[in-house]
Amino acid sequence: MAVPGFALVGQLALRLSADGRDRRLYLAQDRSSGRIFSLPRKLALALHRLRAINDGDEEARRDMGAEELRDAYGFLRQMSGMRDEDQLRRKPFNPVFMSIPLIDLAPWQPRLAPLARRMVAPWYLWLLALMALACFMLGIRSDWAIMESYRNVFSLQALATFGIVAPFLKVIHELGHALTATRYGVRLRKGGLYVIGLYPMPYVDCSEADVSAHRRHRLAISAAGIAVDVGVGLVAFIAWYLVEGSYLQVLVGNIFVFSTLNSLLFNANPIVKLDGYYVMCDLIRSRNLATRAAAVFKEARVWVMTLGRAGSYPQAARHWAMLGYAVLGLLYRLRILFVIGFALMPRYLGLGVVLVAWGAIAMFAVPMMRDRVPKVALEGSAKRARTGMRLGLLAALVIALAFVKAPHVLVLPVALDTGGRYQVTARTAGFLQTLAPAGDMQPGTPLARLENPLLADRAQMLEANLDGARLAYETVRGDHPAKAAVAREQVETLEQQLQVSRYELAELELTSGSGRFLPRSGLARGAYLASGEPLGAFLPDTGRARLTGQFPERYVQKFQQGLTGVELRHAGQYEILEISTTELLAIPAVDRVGGGRSYKLVTEVGTPPAALAGQPGLLRLRFEAEPLAAHVVFWFRGLVVRFREAQIADRESW
Length: 654
Hints:
single chain; four-stranded antiparallel sheet; 18 helices; 21 strands; seven-stranded antiparallel sheet; alpha+beta; elongated; disordered N terminus; 654 residues
């Protein structure tokens, strides 16, 4: 049959992507726009024959059927319509998410090729392994002091470091993708900026890897950014121990925190549609997993909301897996947003609210705009059923808030009372001479020895004075009774003073019982210690262990109303404790910034203290049950208190 020539078919790149396990993908790429289409086998064959016809293949012209021609023509017309829409339709300004292409990277790839051959090589993985080993050794030697940087992850300095450094680190990250793609012959397209909530983040378009790269090469390209982030984090870890000055240490520590948290929580996480997601898709040989999972989730949600009148529920096992993936991704993003939002929202004089809103946009709005899923059309009874379901869910929520009761639960970090009952202190002021290392001790083992030259000189002076007083007493004892009485009183006074002085000298040496000693870090030989200054902690290997933890003031009333259960988790084990062993102590101090009072919770367990050394636990406290509405009010009041305290703290610091 006569077939008209289609110029568009010559602008298509047809690929057969074989990923093994008899799973083949037929792909077509529009060379003009860069769009990639996944085709049914029948349509891919029709387009292949049509291109052969345009190349003058008469056999393909004879084999081309009318139905194949219609399918191919329909696809080309659809592709042409997409091109016209891109050229004619003006995209609306969207400050939430914009993609700004800046440069065509393909002409630069020949210049990058020598660098790519040198950098994308096994030696980089060996370097990462060596740096990881060095970091492990440094961490052990310093007792992982750098981990203190995580405590200030939401500080203003850390957030400012993130805002300033993140785009530059992202450039290095994207360079890893670009070099790896160049190394494996994948043509780069555009490089530019994603503007997410008015915040710029660089990007590199490596989408041609889907049609031109082998699966293992796609894995390498996707994982390159993760490898770069890990390398930056390891370098920052090592640099933290090498730089001097608190400012540089804080800066490098924040870079380390950003690189590691970004990789663990987002970039390497397969639930988030970033590098880890693409690695997972190629590993399980399931491309476009997020888009298909979102479509399955939407269909299932509509099916539930309309009571089966519209949408559809998953049929095959793979559809159930996609639904689970979509739900897991949604719950993960909600969890991350809640944790970060609860910590940030009250802070920085309202700026925390802006940061949380930006995070919500980046985690929810941007993926929805980037991966649009067609809406499910509802008509008639389906629309009425959805409305009824929404009203029913709202009514069920109101009833649950009013009548369903649940106990208040507080999870409290607790540790051995090393600052109280088990603390070892200097009984007499002096200069430290020896301090026992950490470890198990036998009864009578020396723990610490101090020296105090003033006490030694005073004891010698008292001994000399006592000898003189005794001689004077012996001289006048038989001749002058009155003088003898005065001399006797002086001897007794000097004897008492000498006894006290010798006791103070004896207190300069401390010995242990049976247990484990944990010395205070940072004490050097010759350091002066005042009386009562801590030397460490001694944990007996018998008796009951005493655990303590800071108790939030807003739960004090709940505690006074009564506990209903106490459970301790430590060393991977759970232990139910008697409520009578738990008590609340008020600390005679007031928070200078927030104005709140301080409380300490104390409990005892049957395990000896030495067995719990270095094993902090979590104490789960259950209070009286109240309606869910009371829980919401209690949570909101706590948020208001946190907001006020944060405002006061920010004003004090600014």
